[in-house]
Task: structure prediction
Amino acid sequence: MIVMGVESSCDETSVALVKDGKTVLSNAVLSQIDIHREYGGVVPEIASREHVKGISLVFDQAVKRAGIAFSDIDLIAVTAGPGLIGSLLIGVAAAKVIAMNFDIPIIGIHHIAGHIYANNIEHDLEFPCLALVVSGGHTQLIVMKGHYDFQIIGETADDAVGEAYDKIARVLGLPYPGGPLVDKKAALGKDLYKLPRPLIDSGDFQFSFSGLKSHVINLHHNMVQRQEPFAVEDICASFQEAVTDVLVKKTKEAAHRYAVKQVIVAGGVAANKGLRAKMTREITDVPVYFPGMAYCTDNAAMIAVAGYFKFQKTGKADDYAINGDSRLELK
Result:
């Protein structure tokens, strides 16, 4: 079964072809990072315009690289939400045009389901499994007892972890996107500042990163005001140690409580080398898997994989009234 994935929830325009939920035939991604860097973050109106400009190109690239025709496609899976509503609507509209033109079934996919299923490209999911979702908009622990069966057991009460990384980076004068740079500098620094580990011993699986973010911002501000010498690398290292301590401990506790067979990490922050190292080092009684680096950030291959498994479970496609939903719930 060949599934075409379409992803446009934020600032990447992507189309992919995936066979049987596993084999990536092509994965065309058009990134807008260089455009938004000038503004220090994603500007929704600009993102929408860039999707309009690039969507036809990535459809063409994906089909040509896969070496197939549109008539070979069995299903189109498109990100229906959550995300920037203007960006979502462009991807959904383009996917519907292709679906109607070539009489292909279409199915809407939750963006986070896509991130979770990115792991299936290189490692088969085994159930029950535990997914730690860490991205710019989400921080969640999700138990899956089977394919397309999501039980959210914990999430952030405020800032998502990726959002906290980007805000810390901005305060430290690092360019957008700042999260990967904080990770890189953390590897060069020392954990000198004893930062709080929010909710680390709460006994549940809830997260909170707003207070930690404010603590780091105030620490930096006070040192600047007092003209105290400091190294950005040390602040990054201290921040990353605090964040990863919380993420790893809660994930480890959840894995034991729910007796899962594997732990998977999903979302853009899954590319964080500090998190990868600590998760692998601290969780040893069950396998811990991460997507390949190319599938951590937003891409359409992960949407195609999720679409395959959703269709296999439900046996139903959506009708052409499918639309984007910026607040779509995972279910």
Notes: The mean pLDDT is 97. The radius of gyration is 20 Å. The chain is about 40% helix and 20% strand.
